[in-house]
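Researcher: I've been going back and forth with a colleague about how Solute carrier family 66 member 2 might be arranged in three dimensions. Neither of us has a model we trust, so I'd like an independent prediction. The organism is Lepisosteus oculatus, in case that matters for your notes. Sequence below.
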Amino acid sequence: MEDEVFEQIISVLNQLVSWIAAGAMMFGGVVPYIPQYRDIRRSQNAEGFSTYVCLVLLVANILRILFWFGRYFETPLLWQSIIMIVTMLVMLNLCTGVRVATENNTKRRSFLATDSKDEEIKVPKRLFLDFDWKYFWLWSGFVDYLQCVLAFTAVAAYITYLFLDSILFVEALGFLAVFTEAMLGTPQLYRNYQNKSTEGMSIKMVCMWTSGDTFKTGYFLVNQAPIQFWICGLLQVFVDLAILFQVYYYSRYPQKPVSHAVHPSSAKAL
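Model: Here is an independent structure prediction for Solute carrier family 66 member 2. You can compare it with whatever you and your colleague have in mind.
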């Protein structure tokens, strides 16, 4: 009798741990962006955050959802992708609004400094439908980013539908999805290198990246997820550690930012 009760307790605990782990997988990826979102909203400055991080995660999670149709994996991982896509769109909406407002204010001050009488000072709009690659992912409105995401999703979904019966294509799609996500920190890593500083970047966000990616990789291993998942998970942890090293290095050895002669409208390459 006691053995049966003990087994039931163990079974309930295992189920509880499984639910907690699944919940952490679904929502844990969102948590690192909460402090970054609050910092940008409070300071009205998005300079320290690379919106290309949003691009990487949007592409990775869209591809992962398409991979699910070819090779089913755990449902929490599917929901994680859906939640992450929504989160990245929210971040893009905030960063775009802040960036455009900053550009307008900068130009307004420039006109006032030259005693201009023009009160209608606006930065020229850059639209997705212009198909100008010079301004890719530097558009003036959130709607343009949304159009790009929808266009990519439609094309990728159509191609996946055509080749869904090909095992080679499905496996390659899965690898591309997780490898793209593994490169998540690369835009931030490069931006920090360009600026010779990590100022404006939320260190809390990177610490959460690292802990979350470590947990996620362990989850992949324990639950025997497709091999693409845990290999790229290890790579993602390595990139996170590289960014943390930048935080240590640039705080211990501050360096003067390198000046670049760039076009004003392309100064935010990342």
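Researcher: What would you highlight for our discussion?
Model: I'd start with this: Residues 258-270 have pLDDT under 50 and may be disordered. After that, consider the following. The longest helix spans residues 75-113.
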